[in-house]
Amino acid sequence: MAEKLSSWFDRVESSQFEAYSEKYKEIMLMTRRNGILEVRLHTGDGPLKFSWKVHSMWSQAWIDIGRDPENEVMILTGTGDRWLDADPEVWKRPFREWTPDDKLKMYHESLRLLENMIFNIDIPTIAAINGPGTHCEIGTLCDITICTKDADFFDPHFMGGTPPGDGMLLTLQNTIGIKRASYYAYTGRKIDGRTALELGIVNEILPREKLLSRAWELAEMMMERPRAARELTHSIISRPWKQALVNDQGFHLAHQMYHMSNDEDTGFLERLMKNRERFQAKHE
């Protein structure tokens, strides 16, 4: 339902769905119906393949989505049978060889990727994690998170030989507690959907074919309530995440980047490649 603002209530022009849905269509296919925005991560209509371009586009997309008052509930999901595929070879060039401006850009984008989602999207959010893959922290940050039983929540950083800093450990610490989170950070052990439900990372597990319809069911239930109730409830629910990001995310990220900028160990990529099946579909 469109906002009912008084004639004197001027606003700077908001984001236009037609413009930003086209701008980000390479990595996000967006559809909107009755105020519910579905954002489907993808590459070539298959599982999203992570790249530094994807990393950059994410942080910008959250701003445009949040600036559109026609978006009243957001559903975030993936494509096919995986949430996201990552290629360890994005780290083929050692971080210590990146230019100072490369590193600075990475620092800011890594912060904004999560901060812009939490601080700029003022509507209820639902993640439907449709299978295994990396960067599940984005789905975990949503107000409600549902997933398939084969979802794979894990932090790969220590497996590769570097401190964790991109947000997965942060979301684990704030969902399952510091003791459990430390175990999963050190071991890289898989947290599947059922375990994630037991630990409190997700709210429901469903068969893949029913996952998205359940997300829409939840979104439509939210739309039955007044706009103010939806947005102010989201504000209350997201406040702990805002506090966690302000208090700790920069700290985590700075430790990771310090280590990677100075580390002479050449085994980082090799260690990640040994676990390649965790990052990518088995047929690749």
From TrEMBL:
Keyword Methyltransferase: no
Enzyme Commission code: 4.2.1.17
Broad EC category: lyase
InterPro entries in the cross-refs: ClpP/crotonase-like_dom_sf, Enoyl-CoA_hydra/iso
Residues making up the signal peptide according to the UniProt record: none
Keyword annotations: Lyase
Gene Ontology process terms (BP): fatty acid beta-oxidation
SUPFAM superfamilies on file: ClpP/crotonase
Single Gene Ontology MF annotation: enoyl-CoA hydratase activity
Descriptive protein name: Enoyl-CoA hydratase/carnithine racemase
